[in-house]
Amino acid sequence: MTLSTMLSSMGGGMLGTCGIFFLTILFSMPLGMVIMFLRRSRFRAVQEITKLYIAVMRGTPLMLQLLMWYFGPYYLFEMSIRGYRFPAIIIGFSMNYAAYFAEIYRGGMDTIPKGQYEAAEILGYSKAQTFFKIILPQVMKAILPSVTNEIITLVKDTSLAFTLAYNEMFSIAKQIAASQTSFVPFIIAGVFYFIANYAVAFVMERIEKAFDYYK
């Protein structure tokens, strides 16, 4: 198999990997914000339940969580899982990464002095205005390095979709390497992940510079 044929065969896997990545970012980052607010709730029961959720998501392997999200509906409710493979992957990744983003957001919120909330209240800002106009821009600037690290980790973690026999980049690379007894597919996959992470780092660096006016 020639190099061009390998690249063509792996093209579908690259698209699958990109799909997992972008959909996970789309769902996990806003969900993480919701979880962060629940974690900071005034109600102790809500706090404890949220803390338990975060502990479970962060304390168990993502691979195990993917298996549970995929096979859980069948074993627990005898539901058909036909056509459920990709949704289970997105749910598993999103729920897992939302827990990490929630803790990153919480750490950023904790860096904001309480005096800023009081000053905003004196100036007549509503809670929503205070959050979106004053607090959120500062939080985003503080957490961007940590968010960048999580996103880079996500690029590499997309390879765990092979657990559910989904044909993303790494799965196809393994299949071709095994059938052709060649190491080249792994090199191609490695280059793809490196370029993807370089692109993520480049974009996030531009975003960080956009927040420089808060210096």
Largest sheet: none
- What is the CATH third-level topology name? MetI-like fold
Count of distinct strands: 0
* Rg, nearest Å: 21 Å
Spans where pLDDT lies below 50 across 5 or more residues: none
| N-end to C-end Cα span | 54 Å
What's the architecture in CATH terms? Orthogonal Bundle
Q: What series of H and E elements makes up the topology? A: HHHHHHHH
Mean pLDDT: 89
Shape: flat
CATH class: Mainly Alpha
- Report the β-strand fraction as a percent range: under 5%
Q: How much helix, percentage-wise, in residues?
A: over 70%
Structural class: mainly alpha
CATH homologous superfamily? MetI-like
How many DSSP H or I helices?
8
Overall structural domain count: 1
Task: Give keywords.
215 residues, MetI-like fold, 8 helices
Task: Report what the structure shows.
With 215 residues, this protein is mainly alpha-helical. The chain has a single domain (3-214), classed as Orthogonal Bundle (MetI-like fold), CATH 1.10.3720. The protein has eight helices and no strands. Helix 1 (3-39) crosses helix 4, helix 3 crosses helix 4 (85-110) and helix 6 packs antiparallel against helix 8. The radius of gyration is 21 Å and the shape is flat. The mean pLDDT is 89.
